[in-house]
Amino acid sequence: MLRVVFFLALALCFMSSGVRGEYLELAETKLFYPQRLGITNLSFKLRIHGLDEYLKASTSLEKINDVHFDILWQAPGKVTIKVVGINEKYKQLIEQLTMQAHQRLLLIFPIPLSSMLRSYKISEVKNANRITIKGLDETYSRDVHAIEVVTDENGKLMESTLNYPSSQKKSTYKTSMKGWSQGKFVVDEISTYTRTASAEAYETVKFDYLVVGGIGLPEKIEIRYHKGLNAEKNKDVAGAKEEIFFGNYKLNSNIRP
């Protein structure tokens, strides 16, 4: 239930001009993300469906009622997280839950790709209307030694692949323009297939948005997991599911959670 979801694939949607590349920069201008829309601070509540039941079954806590997170994000990236519904004396559990909440924040404010690719060698290849952007770690000292991003000729994100020494993570994206996205593509769904020498995993992330002060922000995220042999072929088979809810957004106020 509380496994850490690897949202590095989402970071591929948020590219900055710190990385050179004609099509890389084009893709950046075509993607929607709220950091560029004048957000100075954003407070909200984050809830994970079934968290109370999970804690009751896996801990010895006596009183559990609506455990959730009050979060404040402040530009350029300061985060304050308060775990609500658990006595402060359970410090280790609170630290674990806080870490989980930090992972979910990547759904709203993903890590810029430029911080990953700053020392990668960038190359771009155009084949018909398919653009392949590659980042190579020529030192082979990083965990991810090669990254590949595929867009169409208009900069619309289609695929990404992260290559590790002993595994590969490939993601495909569904995006669309919204009435509030100012002509930018918004990520609606990410399907990720991870393959190692001994295991396979398939993960689908679906986004529902609401509009706060003219800015689209996540309202609900649904994540489905499937592990085992032929995970990609069996991606429609019932597996683990996680639902994350965001609400009580307060935009550009001085109210702390």
Architecture overview:
This protein is an alpha+beta fold and 257 residues long. It is built from 5 helices and 12 strands. The two termini are 25 Å apart. The model is unreliable at 1-8 and 12-19 (pLDDT under 50).
Largest sheet: 12 strands, antiparallel
Individual helix count: 5
What's the N-to-C terminus distance?
A: 25 Å
Helix-strand sequence = HHEHEEHHEEEEEEEEE
Rg on CA atoms, Å: 19 Å
Tell me, what's the shape? globular
Share of helix, binned? 10-25%
* Computed structural class: alpha+beta
| Multimer state | single chain
Task: Kindly summarize this structure in a few lines.
The protein is built from five helices and twelve strands. With 257 residues, the protein is of the alpha+beta class. Strand 10 and strand 11 form a beta hairpin.
